[in-house]
Amino acid sequence: MLKEESWFEREMDEARAMVDACLEGLFTEPVPDGALHEAMRYSVLAGGKRIRPVLALKFAEACGGRMEDALRPACAIELLHTYSLIHDDLPCMDDDTLRRGKPTSHVVFGEWMATLAGDALQAAAFELVMTSALPPQTVVKMGALLARAAGRQGMCLGQVMDMKGEGRSLSLDELLTVHRYKTAALLIAAAQFGVLAAGGSDAQLESAGRYACHLGLAYQIIDDVLDATAATETLGKTAGKDKKSEKTTFLTLMSVDDARRAAIEETEKAVAALRGRFEKTGFLEALAASLVERKY
After folding, report:
1. Could you give the CA distance from residue 173 to residue 37 in angstroms, rounded to a whole number?
2. Is the CA virtual torsion 160, 188, 86, 70 positive or negative?
3. 137 is a domain residue
4. Over the Cα atoms of the chain, what is R_g?
5. Quick one: which of 29, 177, 200, 219 has the most CB atoms within 10 Å?
6. Which tens digit of pLDDT belongs to each residue from 25-50?
7. In angstroms, rounded to a whole number, what is the distance separating the alpha carbons of residues 176 and 24?
8. How many whole angstroms separate alpha carbon 98 and alpha carbon 47?
9. DSSP SS3 for 244
10. How high is the pLDDT of residue 2?
11. Which residue range is the domain that position 19 belongs to?
12. Whole-number pLDDT of residue 4
């Protein structure tokens, strides 16, 4: 007997389908050389959980807006996330050969093309935001937010700290700082994009940011647990690579059981950040719970 799909799974599938349909339509126009588009689409359409764009859509809904109004900015977040994965997998970074169950971009297309595909996806992310139909002042706020999340005050800074941490022991506070930038920064931007698309308040922006920050830390803790305990076939990426790279992870500093408890505590903080600020929080609460319980 087939298991009946829950309301959460139905809403998740609906939001993902909107994102996937939008992404499928990108980078299809004629250009003098289609190889770059091919490499970009390979990574963008390789699958993935689509957590970041779904966050944007659902925060717009939580503020009383329409998911459709946040769709293009949400997809911009996914393009920027995909660029970061391509670059993260390069030989000069984590040197990984598997992502989302498929060979990584540089394995398929070569290092120089993978690098350029990532560069082009980052540029395309800003293009999607800047050409959205939202009010100009909202577009400007989103552009600034995306730049901060991506660059010297966000993912790039987090990646620098992560790379410099290889081969040395980090404290728990140092590790949390790394992942507030490397992991949480883009989740924060995604959540706040949804609030901005719906015309939400400053208080809602702040609450969305706190929710996403705690969500990001919980996500990373479970990611570290799965990297050490799950199989490559389950994860869709190379298991055990953190240990091989001699990186400090949450499992370096605590047991599996303690790590899971820490992830639950971060999840509870994420849910608490929503209280009294939004019209609909059921999906966002269920999403936070589902990410702690995930197997890949």
Report:
1. 41
2. negative
3. yes
4. 18
5. 219
6. 999 999 999 999 999 999 999 988 99
7. 35
8. 13
9. helix
10. 43
11. 7-293
12. 60
Low-confidence ranges of the chain (pLDDT < 50): 1-2
Q: How far is CA 69 from CA 61, 239, 268, 295, in A?
A: 10, 38, 29, 32
Task: Quickly list H helices, 89-201.
Answer: 105-109, 111-130, 136-150, 155-164, 172-182, 184-197
- CATH classification at residue 137: 1.10.600.10
Phi, psi torsion values for 154, nearest 5 degrees? -145, -125
Residue 2 lies in a domain: no
Query: Could you tell me if residue 79 is inside a domain?
Result: yes
Q: Residue 23: which residues within 8 A CB-CB, separation 6 or more?
A: 44, 45, 75, 78, 79
* Whole-number pLDDT of residue 190: 98
Report how far apart, in Å, the C-alpha atoms of 89 and of each of 21, 47, 247, 266, 273 are: 26, 16, 15, 27, 33
Angle between helices 184-197 and 71-88 (to 10 degrees): 170
Calpha distance 117→37 (Å, rounded): 8
Contact by Cβ (8 Å): 279, 62? yes
User: Does 13 fall in a domain?
Assistant: yes
Q: Count of domains in the chain?
A: 1
**pTM, 2 dp:** 0.94
